[in-house]
Amino acid sequence: MNINLYTDGSCLGNPGAGGWAYVLEWGDYRIYGADGMANTTNNRQELYAVIYGLERIEDKSKPVVVYTDSNYVVKGATEWLTKWKANGWRNSRRKEVVNRELWEHLDQLLSKFDSVTFKWIKAHNGHEWNEFADEMANGAANLVQQALINS
């Protein structure tokens, strides 16, 4: 049985206040988490969601399917990551990979699992756990923004 990881990131402005969230699903078991930060980007929040979700999985031998509406995460993890590492963390234009420290962290995490598959899921398409992750990520971003306004 797969462990399903649904993730989402949100940013109010880009950069701006952001939030990330994940939902882990394994059979009838679900666990979720969310948080936010100031002065971030949507892509960073999408990566944080995947990283924190994967970090919660204790049994690395079970196959994991990551569902995300972020093409950046899917393509980064399945197409670009190997090329970036081979090119000394430079992209196809020979510039340093943006969010390198997060990609390195994700790469390190992925190496601990027997199987992780990334699947793109259309945003706001009525999928229960994707929608829930979206609501939590947006909520976290809004809380951060309110805290910044009130400080």
Q: Would you give an account of this structure?
A:
- The protein has a five-stranded mixed sheet.
- It has 151 residues and is an alpha/beta fold.
- A hairpin with a 2-residue loop joins strand 2 and strand 3.
- The protein has a single domain, classed as 2-Layer Sandwich (Nucleotidyltransferase, domain 5).
- The chain contains four helices and five strands, in the order βββαβααβα.
| Helix-strand sequence | EEEHEHHEH
Approximately what portion of the residues adopt beta-strand conformation?
25-35%
> Which whole number gives the mean pLDDT?
96
Q: What composes the largest sheet?
A: 5 strands, mixed
CATH homologous group name: Ribonuclease H-like superfamily/Ribonuclease H
Top CATH class = Alpha Beta
Helix content: 40-55%
Any idea what the CATH architecture is? 2-Layer Sandwich
Q: Any idea what the shape is? A: globular
The number of helices is 4
